[in-house]
Amino acid sequence: MLLPFNFCCRPESMIKALVLLLLAGIILSLFSGLFFLNQDQGGSRRMVRALTVRITLSVILFLVLLYAWFNGLIEPHGVGPG
């Protein structure tokens, strides 16, 4: 499947790619924190750092979604009749 030439240059596509990257980073940080929790048996600096990274990425994701919504790049929609 070929993508259109201007796929990577559209703001909507760039926002969606950024959201996916942030979600991937959040999940990676979640599993690294789980690994450090298991490896270090509790309160280690590595686990706290993974939690800090995950919270920071989550706040950035929230701000990106707000920015995209205010600028009309994404639109919320409800669940269809089912």
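[next item in queue]
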Amino acid sequence: MATVVAEPAAGTTPKRERGHQDQGGKAFNRLAATCVTLFALIWLVPLVWALITSLRPNEDIAAHPMTPWSGGWNLDAYKYAWDTYPLGYWYINSFIISTLSVIFAVVVCSMVAFALVNLRYRGKYAIFAIILAGLMLPTEALVLPQFMEFRALHLLGTYWAVVFPSVALPVAVFVFHSFIKAIPVALVEAARLDGASWWRIYYQVVMPLCRPAISAVAILTFITSWNAFLWPLLVLTQTKSQTIPVGLSGLIGGSAIQYAETMASCILGILPLLAVFLLLQRQIAQGVANTGIK
């Protein structure tokens, strides 16, 4: 006589399986929180150490380098660094170069991505593949040909020698391409049927919808341009025309390093980037999430 075993009803999950799933989810959340905390400490500890060192006297640093709480704290190193070094000029140069790089990168890369998505012409996919191949090229490999190119154009020692290489960003093209490709084709076709030109579709239809991508590209370009070191070091020769990273590198070139003044200058140099990131971190996350980059 056959025995019939009743199967659990569809859509129900045994309590044991639910318990295992809950335990697995809690373990994963704990592991993720631990990893995030460790990475945060890796980045936070050097920043806190630099801040504490900038507040200590040089004599106390030399006598007790590993004891941050010994001696009195003061702001003398910040006053000395601001009065001795041309930090104001370095701030202005970095801000001008970073702002121009953001403007040109957003305009040029968005136009390139718009043409790759909406226009039809031969070799479109080959051009896009070449642009993406630029992601695999290290920046150091382009230093020599770019230097020879800008020397022939008599642009060495000017802002444009630093701005122009920051315009052609394969990452920015990829971000805009991913976002523009997600825009419904019917929207572009409706604008074309209404008689709108490609230029009008670009700046009145597509670009307003690309605000998250614009924010992400602008912020990441600003941070990258502000932190650039090798290329500005080669093309900006005068002291007052240098940027913050290049100028700060010259503070440790002497035989006797003033640790407090050097750390104070570093803290002053990263304050704008820290403020930009803290104020616009939501736009960065939103832009990266909406463009599909994980």
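[queue empty]
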